[in-house]
Amino acid sequence: MVTDHNIPLIIARIQFALTVGVHIIFPAFSIGLSVFLTFLEGMWLRTTDNRYLNLFKYWLKVFSIVFGMGVVSGIVMAYEFGTNWARFSAKAGPITGVLLSYEVMTAFFMEAGFLGVMLFGLNRVGRKMHFFATCAVTTGTLISMTWILASNSWMQTPQGYIIDPKTGHFLPKDWLAIIFNPSFPYRIIHMGLAAMLSVAFTVAAAGAWHLLKAKKNKIQADSTVRLMFSLSLWMIVATAPLQILAGDMHGLNTLKYQPAKIAAIEGDWISERRAPELLFGIPNMKTEHTDYAISVPLLGSLILTHDINGKVPGLKDYPADQRAPSPIVFFSFRIMVALGGIMLLCGLWSLWLRHRGRFFTHPLFLRVMLIMAPAGFVALLCGWVTTEVGRQPWTVYGLLRTEDSASPLALSSLSFSMLFFVVIYVFVFGSGLLMLIRLLRTAPEATDNTHDDTMILGSHHHTVSHNKEVP
Amino acid sequence: MSGLAYYLPFIWAFIVILAISIYVILDGFDLGIGMLFAFEKKPEHRDVMINTIAPVWDGNETWMVLGGATLFGVFPGAYSTLLPAFYIPIIIMLGALIFRGVAFEFRIMAHSPGYRTFWNKGFMAGSMLASFCQGCILGGYVQGIHTHDGAFAGGPMDWLTPFSVLCGLSVIIGYALLGTTWLVWRTSDELEAQCRRWSKRLSILMLLCIIVVSCWTPFLHAPYLHHWLAFPNILFGLPVPLLVALFGFMMWHSLDKDHTITPFLCTIGWFLLSLVGLAITIWPYAVPPTLTLWDVASPVPSQLFQLVGTVILLPIITGYSIYSYYLFRGKVTKADGYH
User: Fold this and answer.
1) What radius of gyration do chain A's Cα atoms show?
2) Is B301 on the interface with A (CB under 8 A)?
3) Which of A103, A168, A313, A382 could bridge to A259 as Cys pair (CB 3.0-4.6 Å)?
4) Range B140-144 contact pairs with CB under 8 angstroms and sequence separation of 24 or more
């Protein structure tokens, strides 16, 4: 409900949603892409097949842009906790601030330190050292994910703390319990797979675009492009089903530790056994009813509890001021699940087409894979919206309310920063997106100098600057 | 206060000052080079300038993230009062750093000359605005912030005073000098000669800034003046002006004598003296003039847990950072592009 006194809080929340939502795309991209790059360079060293090197150089350019955007949008996050969520920082800093510091020390420096070698170093260090640098950057991205998800998971399912009776601050009691909190293992697997899937769909779309172009020009597609497309779809075949499994287990975990979130996601108002699953509906927080519901009997209990007779929570079990906004999470969750299902089907379709020998040429399949380019990232964002909005009205679940977490800021300051961030983010990251698209529209370049160690692996020299087409 | 609760904030204050100093020096020359785009218009010189920092700037900026994260974890009381107090300059600085950071890639990826010009300007303006904001934040910090019950209680524009603006301009000049002296070390021929000339002018300006800020600071708060004049502090204080003069003399001498790295080291010397001077002035406040280090510190278990990691990891981080600098050592020339 919008009243005068909570407008600053609403702006602060929208600003945080914008900045963190834009940010998370880049680390996810970096995680998935660095794993892919490590694989490509490793395969090149092993097989000396030049196509792997071509692909490595091609995606390294993309990596340099994506990583740069991740760094600059990430610095905003490191300071925004303090600028906008001062009361949260003062209370939870002794726990989340320490975890963030570990992330900086174990991951950010490692990534930054070896990124220069990875981008610019092949003509200065040997191949093995260069591969080591690539592995170091990849390890850095994975360590980074581990710490930040430990911190986020602790906010979702806090444990291992005591609350200072005088100040109300969270004091650490057991660091292992804090890090390995109940939702952490599920979240890290779910997020890791999401990063892989997102990048796999982006790589597949780039491949599909070049395959369609070759088809249109009636020429045989380049074998490097075919390899790229093939690799990405093997990745999708492997990770899409795993992700659905991981998501299901994450759901069971959420039901156990955050049942109110599940009730909001499902749009269920009354706790019941043998509950239906709503395929569609519009949850109404005022009338406490989900309108226009289309439901499948028994499926709700079956999905959530793996038991037809399982008991499913309802929003009315919780006081009105402790309910997450169901209309948002109801839809974000369903979009994510639907995309997950489509991804699985894409993988199965690719297997069938490989079997029929039409994998690189089937026009509809190629077009679908092109359209699916952002599917992984959209699903990932919907997943984050579900888990973060679903945590409301808390920042630290059940313990610290969002309205008690904000900084004492003037409305004028918040209006300024909100406008400032919107303008800069739309412009800068919009430009970045256009550059990425333009980059991916040029085909990977061929290299013949397999044995030339003086070859320059720059991140910048490529044919894009000659390409006057504007997408 | 038990032993650890008393001593740990000392150690952490030292680590935070160390991280901030490293950031100021390392990203200082990155930002300085960005600002020099205002004066150096030749595309080939600009590319050389960028190439001297392209492999390392990202790591340099990470020290700033470390500073923020360390405050968050170890001095949450400072993190949660200072950041809202400097909300406007911090937000502008973050926006400026975004422009500066993406310009490294975007100016080269640009598909048209006009677009490239735009990102070159973005690189310059972003660097200058970020530097100015950092100076304003520093100035605003030294002049103190209004708190109530351990939380920020002032107005959104309290930071903006003649003193903080002077600090903003000083940081712009200081970073530019770090940039020119870095380039004296890392470039050659025409560009190096140009940077020697710029370094001379900038060093005079920076010396003036150091003198004015140093004379103004003690009169911001009564305790500051007391700090410096009280015995035995005055004994430590006395050599500082002498050292500033010594570094200045060495800088002029080396700029004339074709020494390559000495001017850069002298500039670092000036920065370290200034930062240590400020630290001594403010001591023992984390949020001057009300909250001390102990008022804002995390509980002992947080400080200890983070200290274990820091003691192990900082030397390792330093090690591979040095390796990265070593790998890309030497004068950078046009032919030597990483592109």
Assistant:
1) 24
2) yes
3) A313
4) B140/B85, B140/B86, B140/B89, B140/B164, B141/B82, B141/B86, B141/B288, B142/B167, B142/B217, B142/B220, B142/B278, B142/B281, B142/B282, B142/B288, B143/B220, B143/B221, B144/B220, B144/B221, B144/B288, B144/B289, B144/B290
Confidence of residue B105 (pLDDT cuts 50, 70, 90): confident
Query: How many other CB atoms are found less than 10 A from the CB of residue B188?
Result: 16
Question: What pLDDT, on a 0 to 100 scale, did the predictor assign at position A5?
Answer: 65
- A195 found inside a domain: no
**pLDDT band at residue A445 under the 50/70/90 scheme:** confident
A464–B309 CB contact, under 8 Å: no
Strand, coil or helix: what is B257? Answer: coil
pLDDT of residue A457: 38
Asked if the C-beta of B307 comes within 8 angstroms of chain A's C-beta atoms, the answer is no
**CB-CB neighbors (< 8 A) of A81 in chain B:** 72, 79
Task: Say how many CA atoms lie within 13 Å of A41 toward its Cβ.
Answer: 24
- Does residue B276 form part of some domain? yes
pLDDT per position as a tens digit, A380-429: 999 999 999 999 999 999 999 999 999 988 899 999 999 999 999 999 99
| Contact call for B106 and A464, based on CB within 8 A | no
Instruction: Please report whether residue A345 resides in a domain.
Output: no
State the best of B80, B86, B304, B336 to mutate against chain A, taking most chain A CBs within 10 Å: B80
- Residue B322 contacts A where some CB pair is shorter than 8 Å: no
Distance from CA of A351 to the nearest CA of B (A): 37
How many structural domains comprise chain A?
1
Query: Which residue of chain B has the CA closest to A87?
Result: B80
Nearest to B31 by CA among B133, B135, B140, B124: B124
* B214, two tokens: 């140093």
Residue A301 lies in a domain: no
Is B157's Cβ below 8 Å from some Cβ in A? no
| Contact residues, chain A, for B160 at CB < 8 Å | none
CA dist list (Å): B78 to A9, A76, A402, B140 = 22, 18, 21, 14
Question: How many A-B residue pairs are in contact by the CB < 8 A criterion?
Answer: 257
Query: Which of B68, B83, B101 is facing A68, going by the closest CB pair?
Result: B101
Chain A residues with beta carbon closer than 8 angstroms to that of B80: 82, 86-87, 89-90, 93, 407
Query: Model ipTM?
Result: 0.90
Q: How far apart are CA B99 and CA B95, in angstroms?
A: 7
Contact yes or no for A460 and B339 at CB 8 A: yes
Could you tell me if residue B2 is inside a domain? no
Full domain range(s) for residue B11: 7-336
Q: How far apart are CA B77 and CA B293, in angstroms?
A: 9
* B15 shares contact with chain A (CB less than 8 Å): no
Q: CA A148 to CA A141: how far, in whole Å?
A: 11
Q: Which residues of chain A from 424 to 463 reach within 8 Å of chain B, CB to CB?
A: 424, 428, 431-432, 435, 438-439, 456, 458-461
In a domain, A363, yes or no: no
- Which residues constitute the domain of residue A81? 19-179+409-471
| pLDDT band of A242, cuts 50, 70, 90 | very high
Encoded amino acid at A99, one letter: L
User: Is residue B1, in this structure, part of any structural domain at all?
Assistant: no
Distance CA A38, CA A27 (A): 16
Q: Are B84 and A408 within 8 A, CB to CB?
A: yes
A175-184, A244-253, B55-64: range with lowest mean pLDDT: B55-64
Number of compact structural domains in chain B: 1
Distance from C-alpha of A81 to C-alpha of A44, rounded to nearest angstrom:
42
Check whether the bond before B289 is cis (ω within 30° of 0): yes
Q: Is B72 on the interface with A (CB under 8 A)?
A: yes
pTM reported for the whole predicted model: 0.91
CB contact under 8 A, A79 and B68: yes
